[in-house]
């Protein structure tokens, strides 16, 4: 299938036909990676990787302690509550 490169603002772009989008499971707002090849461009869908809560907290030993911060003397029109 052939498509024309079109001017879009200061850039250039192509329209991807619906048939190709359907066949590749690409949708509007998906993130893709453009990979420069010797004679062209390869378009690859980026699949987001979400960490589980176990992975997010891996290595956390529970030792966090909330601390009060001193930002110095008040000045200007600040109001301390």
Structure description:
By secondary structure, the protein is α+β, with helices and mostly antiparallel strands. It has a domain at 6-56: Pemi-like Protein 1, Chain: D (Ribbon), CATH 2.10.260. Helices cover 14% and strands 20% of the residues. The strands form two sheets. The chain has a two-stranded antiparallel ribbon. The chain has a two-stranded antiparallel ribbon with strand order 3-4. The radius of gyration is 25 Å and the shape is elongated.
Quickly describe the structure:
The chain has 81 residues and is an alpha+beta fold. It has a domain at 6-56: Pemi-like Protein 1, Chain: D (Ribbon), CATH 2.10.260.
List the helices and strands and how they pair.
Blueprint: E1 6-8, E2 11-13, H1 18-24, E3 32-36, E4 41-45, H2 53-56
Antiparallel strand pairs: 1-2, 3-4
Overview features:
81 residues; alpha+beta; Pemi-like Protein 1, Chain: D; two-stranded antiparallel ribbon; 2 helices; 14% helix; elongated
- Overall 3D shape: elongated
Q: Helical amount among residues, as a percent range?
A: 10-25%
Label the structural class. alpha+beta
H-E string: EEHEEH
**CATH-defined architecture of the domain at 6-56:** Ribbon
Approximate strand percentage = 15-25%
Q: Enumerate the spans where pLDDT stays under 50 for 5 or more consecutive residues.
A: none
Q: Please count the beta strands (DSSP E, at least 2 residues each).
A: 4
Count of separate DSSP helical elements: 2
- Describe the biggest sheet? 2 strands, antiparallel
């Amino acid at each position: 299938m052939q498509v024309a490169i079109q001017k879009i603002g200061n850039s250039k772009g192509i329209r991807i036909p619906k048939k190709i989008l359907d066949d590749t499971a690409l949708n509007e707002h998906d993130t893709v990676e453009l990979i420069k090849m010797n004679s062209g461009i390869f378009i690859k869908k980026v699949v987001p990787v979400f960490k589980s809560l176990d992975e997010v907290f891996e290595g956390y030993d529970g030792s966090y302690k909330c601390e009060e911060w001193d930002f110095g003397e008040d000045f200007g029109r600040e109001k301390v509550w």
